[in-house]
Amino acid sequence: MKILALSGSLSGSKTYTIIREAAEYAKEKEDVEVELVNLSELTVQFCDGRDPSKYEGETAWLIRQFIEADSFIIGTPIYRGSLTGALKNVFDLIPNDALKGKVIGFVATGGTYHHYLAIEHQLNPLASYFRAHIVPGGVYAHNDHFTSGVLTDEDIHHRLRKLAHSVVTISQSLKDHQTALEQPVIPRQA
Ligand SMILES: Cc1cc2nc3c(=O)[nH]c(=O)nc-3n(C[C@H](O)[C@H](O)[C@H](O)COP(=O)(O)O)c2cc1C
């Protein structure tokens, strides 16, 4: 199973730190391959409404990662009570069906605890738009959970691990279910 773990911050390190931790927890499960992506290391074009297949360079590469992934762990710093513009641009770039039937776990970081519900009212609706399955228990971490840039809060570690494992387990169950639904090939009698 291929998981795309993406941090939607262009400057700081906290979101990337928790996305990287979640990616490590996902890898504790069998047969998991993680593509860990830090948006700040890519040059991504603005979505201008063209067909997603017409983008080039790192934009095209990123779109392809979304299409090829089975499931996602996606994180954003909270900017003005919502996701970053950079991450919203990524959601605007990908094809409409890139997330359909796939599984997403969301994480977010903020300066304080004030915007912990942003996952519920800003990120989950995006996943719904794309008809993706949202893993319950998105993780919100803020400044008090970090010490000198290191995630030191044990509860957040525990919840990240649970989220990452759930992404893998739910995605695998959906795949198994899909396989079970496929019609058996019935050989024709001569
Ligand atoms: C433009 C801007 C807007 C922000 N808005 C909020 C906000 O609405 N609520 C909040 O809790 N933190 C806000 N913050 C703080 C960041 O969400 C917080 O520092 C975050 O952990 C940064 O993540 P990063 O280190 O991955 O970039 C804002 C920061 C910036 C730069």
Structure overview:
With 190 residues, this protein is an alpha/beta fold. It has a single domain, classed as Rossmann fold (3-Layer(aba) Sandwich). It has helices spanning 14-26, 57-68, 85-93, 118-129, 154-181; strands at residues 2-7, 33-38, 71-77, 103-110, 133-134, 139-142, 146-147, 150-151. Strands 1, 2, 3, 4, 5 and 6 form a 6-stranded parallel sheet that branches. A two-stranded antiparallel sheet has the order 7-8. α3 links the parallel β3 (71-77) and β4. α1 crosses α5 (154-181). Residues 9, 11-15, 77-81, 109-112, 114-115 line the site of flavin mononucleotide.
Q: Summarize this, please?
A:
This protein has 190 residues and is of the alpha/beta class. The protein is 39% helix and 19% strand.
Attribute tags:
alpha/beta; 190 residues; binds flavin mononucleotide; Rossmann fold
CATH superfamily: Flavodoxin domain
Q: Round the mean pLDDT to the nearest integer and report it.
A: 96
Order of helices and strands: EHEHEHEHEEEEH
Overall SS class: alpha/beta
Remind me, CATH topology?
Rossmann fold
Proportion of residues in helical segments: 25-40%
Described by the principal axes of the CA atoms, the overall outline is: globular
Number of strands: 8
Count helical runs.
5
Low-confidence runs: none
Strand content range: 15-25%
Bound molecule types: flavin mononucleotide
Give me the CATH architecture, please: 3-Layer(aba) Sandwich
The whole-angstrom Rg is: 17 Å
- Compute the separation of the termini in Å: 40 Å
Number of domains: 1
* Biggest β-sheet strands, sense, barrel: 6 strands, parallel
CATH class: Alpha Beta
